[in-house]
C-alpha cells in the first residue's frame, strides 16, 4: 500500500507515458488480452484535451483487427492541468471515451472489455508506475466507457517542506530553503519530505 501511494502521489518529475491495455473479462479464467497502445505525455503540446483515435496493436506490434474486419481503436482525450498551491503541482486528466471494432474473445462471439492505464515516469534513478482500471462492459465490441482518470504530479519535496514549515511558523520555511540550498551537495540534493 505504501509503495502504491508513493508511486501515485510522490512523482514530482511527472508522467512521461500512458499505456492503454484493453482486455476481455472472464469470471472463471484469466482476462484475455485484446490490444494495447502507448502515448507519450508532453506538457508543451498537452494534446489540449482533443479526442484522439488510437489504433490498438497486439503484443508483436501488429494491428488488432475486429470481428467486423476493421482496425480496433481506442478513443481518449488527455490534458495537463496545473494546480494552485498545495501538495500537488498538476494533474494529467485522461478521459477514456470508447473503443471500436474489438475482436470477440468469448465463445458467445462478443467480449466483456475493460481498459487498464499504466502511467510511467522517472525522477532521477527512481522509476514510477501507476495503474488504474475502467469498468467492465459486458457483451460489447464497441464499448462506451466515458471514464476520467487522473495522474497527479507532486510538488518537489523540499519546496513542499519549506511551504509547510512557513505555514507552521513564519520564517521557518525560509530557513529550511536556505539550509537546503546551502547543503544540497552534502545532503544529496536537498531536504526531502
TrEMBL record:
Species the sequence originates in: Symbiodinium microadriaticum
Q: Membrane-crossing residues?
A: none
Give the coiled coil ranges: none
Name a single GO biological process: positive regulation of gene expression
Q: Which domain of life is it from?
A: Eukaryota
Q: Which SMART domains would you find in this protein's record?
A: C2
> What positions does the domain C2 occupy?
70-193
Q: What is the name attached to this protein's record? A: Synaptotagmin-3
InterPro entries in alphabetical order: C2_dom (IPR000008), C2_domain_sf (IPR035892)
Amino acid at each position: 500500500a505504501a509503495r502504491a501511494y508513493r508511486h501515485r502521489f510522490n512523482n514530482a518529475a511527472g508522467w512521461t507515458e500512458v499505456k492503454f491495455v484493453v482486455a476481455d473479462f472472464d469470471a472463471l479464467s484469466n482476462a484475455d488480452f485484446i490490444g494495447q497502445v502507448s502515448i507519450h505525455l508532453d506538457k508543451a503540446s498537452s494534446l489540449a484535451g482533443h479526442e484522439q483515435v488510437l489504433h490498438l496493436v497486439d503484443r508483436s506490434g501488429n494491428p488488432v483487427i475486429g470481428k467486423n474486419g476493421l482496425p480496433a481503436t481506442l478513443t481518449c482525450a488527455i490534458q495537463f492541468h496545473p494546480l494552485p498551491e498545495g501538495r500537488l503541482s498538476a494533474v494529467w486528466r485522461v478521459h477514456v471515451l470508447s473503443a471500436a471494432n474489438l475482436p470477440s474473445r468469448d465463445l458467445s462471439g462478443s467480449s466483456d472489455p475493460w481498459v487498464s492505464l499504466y502511467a510511467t515516469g522517472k525522477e532521477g534513478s527512481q522509476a514510477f508506475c501507476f495503474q488504474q482500471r475502467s469498468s467492465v462492459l459486458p457483451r460489447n465490441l464497441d464499448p462506451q466507457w466515458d471514464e476520467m482518470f487522473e495522474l497527479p504530479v507532486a510538488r518537489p519535496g523540499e519546496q513542499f517542506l519549506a511551504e509547510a514549515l512557513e505555514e507552521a511558523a513564519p520564517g521557518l520555511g525560509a530557513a529550511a530553503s536556505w539550509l537546503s540550498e546551502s547543503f544540497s551537495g552534502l545532503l544529496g540534493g536537498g531536504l526531502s519530505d
